[in-house]
Structure formats: C-alpha cells, structure tokens
Amino acid sequence: MHTYKGIPCMTGIAVGEALVMPRDVEHHIHRRQVAPDEAAREDEKCRAALAKAAEEIDREIEQLRGYGNDASEIFEFHKALILSPDLAQAIRTHILDGHMSAEYALFTAMRRWHEHFNGLNSQTAAQKVHDLVDVERRIMRHLVGGAMLGFGSLGREVVLVAHTLTPSQAASLRKTKIKGFATDIGGQTAHTAIMARAMAVPAVVGTGDLSLRIRGGQTVIIDGLKGLVIVDPDSATLEGYREQERRHRAAFDALVAERDLPAETIDGYQVEVLANIELPEEVEMALAMGARGVGLYRTEYLYEECHEPSEDMQYNVYHEVARSLGGRPCIIRTMDLGADKFAHEGQQDGERNPFLGSRSIRYSLQRPELFMVQLRAILRASVAGDVRILFPMISVVEELREAKRLLARAKEELAAGGIPFRPHIPVGIMVEVPSAALTVGQLAGEVDFLSIGTNDLVQYSLAVDRVNQRVAHLYQPGSPAIMHLLRHIIAVAQKLSKGVCVCGEMSADPRFVLLLLGLGLREYSVAPLAAPLVKHIVRSVSLAEAEAIAEKTRAMDTAEKCEAFMSERLAALVPNLM
Ligand code: PEP
Ligand code: MG
After folding, report:
1. Domain enclosing residue 219, as ranges
2. Ligand 1 atom 8: the closest Cα is on which residue?
3. How far apart are the first and last CA of the chain?
4. Do residues 161 and 124 share a domain?
5. Which of 234, 255, 284 is the last residue in one of the domains?
6. Does the C-beta of 453 come closer than 6 Å to ligand 1?
7. Which ligand is nearest to the CA of 525?
8. pLDDT of 356-373, one tens digit each?
9. Is residue 513 part of a domain?
10. Is the CB of 432 under 6 A from ligand 1?
11. Which of 227, 249, 270, 445 sits at 20 to 30 Å (Cα–Cα) from 3?
12. Which tens digits make up the pLDDT trace of 37-66?
C-alpha cells in the first residue's frame, strides 16, 4: 500500500481500478486489433468520420464569413489536414494491413505527424502541433459518435490517473464510468478542479508524478476530502473507505432532501444561493439542488466546443438557459478565455505570463468583432428572462468603459435591425484583481452589481499561481490580506447599495460560508451540488453568531489561525456536517 498526497478538490471518495492516461496523449485510446473480416468496416468508419469532420469544418468556415480572415484560414488549414491523402492512406494501411481499430489507426497515424512537427523545434511547428491536436480531436469525436476521448466506451468503473486533464476533459467524465480522478499537476481552484466539483467527481490534483508510478489495473482510492490517493490499499483501509463512501453519500442525500427550504438564518435573515454553471445542461441540476438561479454562467466553455461560436449558436444556447430558468436570475459572464482556461489563438505565440497577459476582458477588448458577436447574442437572449451581464477581470475603469461602449453599440445595432432585447440589462463586474478591489467604490459607481471572484482574487493578491501545486500551500483564502479585501469590497457595496455576490470557490467552503455571512454577504454563487450544503449552514446559525466569527478573525495574523478558528466554530454550530 502506498499513499500519495495531493490537493483535495472534490470532497468524496472513489474506489476503483486505475486507468492510467499516458502523458503524451490527451485522450485514452485502447490498443485494439480487429479481425481481418472487420477491417473493411473499420476503414469505412474512418472514411465517414473524415468526411463528417470536413463537412463540419466547412460549416464553421461559412459561419466565420465576415469575421476576418485569420480564423477561417486556421480552419482551412485544419480542413487540408483532414483531407490530406497521406493521412487517409496511413490510416488505411494501419487498418487493412495492421488490423488496427479505426480509433487506434487514427491515433497511430497522427502520432507520426506529431513526431515530425515536434522534431522541427520551431515556433511555427509548435503551432502546428496545436492544430494537429485539434484536428485529431475533431475526427476522433466523429469516430466515437460524439463521446469525446473514448472514455464513454469503458465497460467497467475505473479511477482515472493522468498527468493533467483539461477542463473539458473533466467535463466529459460525467457521462462515463470514471468514478474519480487524480492528476499530477493542478491546484484547488484550477478550472479542471472546478469542473470536477460541478460534475461531482471525487478528485485529487497536484500529486507530483503519480501517473508515472502507477500501473493500470491497480486498486486506487481517491480521498477527495484529505487529498490522498492510496494505491493497493490493505483490506482494512479499503473497508474503512467503503464505509466512509457510504456515510458521505447518506449525509449528502440528507442535505439534498432539505434543498428547497429557504436559505434563512435562525434569526430570519434571508440569503440568496445561486449556482455557477459551465454548461447549459447544468441549469437543471442547479434548480434541482435548490439554487435560486444562475449567479455565474462561465460562457468560455462554448468557445472550447466551437472555437468561435456564431451569434445564432450563442443566442440559442443563452436563450435556452434563460428560458429554462423561468424568470430567475441568469448572470451571463462574457468569455473569460486564456490562462488556465482555453487557449485562444493570440496565446499561440507563447505569452510568458498568461495569467497576466491577454486573458479574459483584455482579450475580448482586443478582439472587438468577436466580443460583439457575444454581446449581441446575450442581448438578444435577454428577452427570455432575467438576464444580466457580467464582465470578468476588470482591472482598470477604462476597460469597463470600453466594454460598456461596445455593449451600447451592440444595442444600437440590434435596435436598428428591429431586434428586441432588454434595454436596461443590468451590468456587473467581477472583482477579482486587487486593483479592482482597491478601487471598488469608483467601479461600483459605473455598474449595477459586483461579483467577487475569489479564485483569482487570492491568486493575484498573494501572487500564487492557482494551478501550480508547488505553491499551493501559499494559496490561502483565509489570509489577512484577503480578509481585508473582502471586508472592504462588501462594505463599499453595502454603502453604495449595490448587490454583491461571492462566486469563487470560497463561497462553497463551509467555514467561509459562516465568515462571509458575518462580513455582510447575502448572495452566494456556488457549484450546483454545493447549494444544499450552503443553505443548510445558513439555516443552522444566527446572524449574530456569524458576525461574532467575522469580528474575531479581524485580529488574526495568519490564514492558519483564521481557518482553524472557523473550523472549530463550524463544528460547534453545524455538527455532523458530511
Ligand atoms: C473566480 O476567479 O473566482 C471566478 C469565479 O472565476 P473563474 O474561476 O472562472 O476564473
Ligand atoms: Mg476568475
């Protein structure tokens, strides 16, 4: 039995056989041979997938007309790769002569090209590798019938161990037999971790080099609460964890049973609990978990699926999200691309500090034609419900003004075309950069509401990369600096009578739920599955108790003291919590 320590990112236990995803591939393709008489069928399958991928790319090129040449040129290059006779021939040979399955033949043929471009060692070649990955994914998706990555075809329940997973890979796990995962790299508020929580998949990230040490088929326990990965557990440990898994499920079920009770303190103060969603399908889960609406819709996931989604495509998605919320709040955040989320093409020339580079609103303002497509789509969808718009990562007021100027232009365009929209759509900003926190009074004067993004606020205030496990111990939401900023932002918002919400991961951490309440917060936006827990905690305390906690932490000089104190108070006020 070996125990590896990582960073906990989804509380829950998963026990299963390890499926190890090799480092150099993004998707796991089983090495599968087929019988000679099945080869023709596999070959046909592959040709059909190539044709579908080419047709799909044609449609996307068509949708890109009018948005400049750069995007369509990239796709033209992808199309040329898909239609390349060399690729088709290589795949054919692997299937007909090597009796490989269609997926494995594609995978093998693409590896050759990867090796070729990797060997060239130039910036342009690195870009080509990026393109290859994209093209391979696209063809593979058609080959395996839309279920990305081949995980969908797993016949038995497993625990995935990988060097790293992208957020969309983590998202794709929800419909598979993968019960949990562990990755070598990553941090607690990285988007892969956030996705794991949204999908309720127990996970541990930042385990070092676990993926190199483990063999497929070994028994693995993922302890998402303590951040442990236990390989080949002895029978007592295994039984202990199985029992814990059962208890955890029972506690969760009990919370879910009371999800529709109001989020109201013992002394009658109402709190709003909203949900963070990444995918439109999550609305259903959010409402089923008792959330009062969507407090943060991370639209960047659309851009991962579709590269640059058209206005109509976005309109349809946003409209459906707003409609299914039936008049409840629907806060749509504009694309927050870059850094640890999805790369945009501006990043392909390699920024040295992507978190400080062209990400989020900065990228949106650098690509006004792309941004306007999204703004028009959100505005058009705004007639379907209580749609509000949220700009991410504002660091100076000029960015906000420019974003609002483009929003006004989008409104004018729609009005000129006689297209309806909500004229006074509320506009808010994410407060997630120290400069925004420090000048929140000024910024708040120009918006309708604020949303505190503690994931980034902690990262930027403490200068700790949120996805780097080497500095994860310094990622301290409870540190005095963060407490100071939170107090300030909430107090200013109250003074100016602006709505303020916390939508970072901190708002779902039971200890911080109490503290934030005591600091004056009345709006939380959390992963759908965390909503019943947050509501339960709010219902278990009085405002006076929460305020006493907030007051006591004022004098604490380390995150450790603050977090230990909050844990102790939580255990006293809300016993038997999970
Ligand atoms: C945040 O930074 O806290 C936040 C909610 O945004 P994201 O995690 O998407 O960067
Ligand atoms: Mg953020």
Report:
1. 2-24+150-234
2. 455
3. 26
4. no
5. 234
6. yes
7. 1
8. 999 999 999 999 999 999
9. no
10. yes
11. 249
12. 888 888 888 998 999 888 888 887 776 666
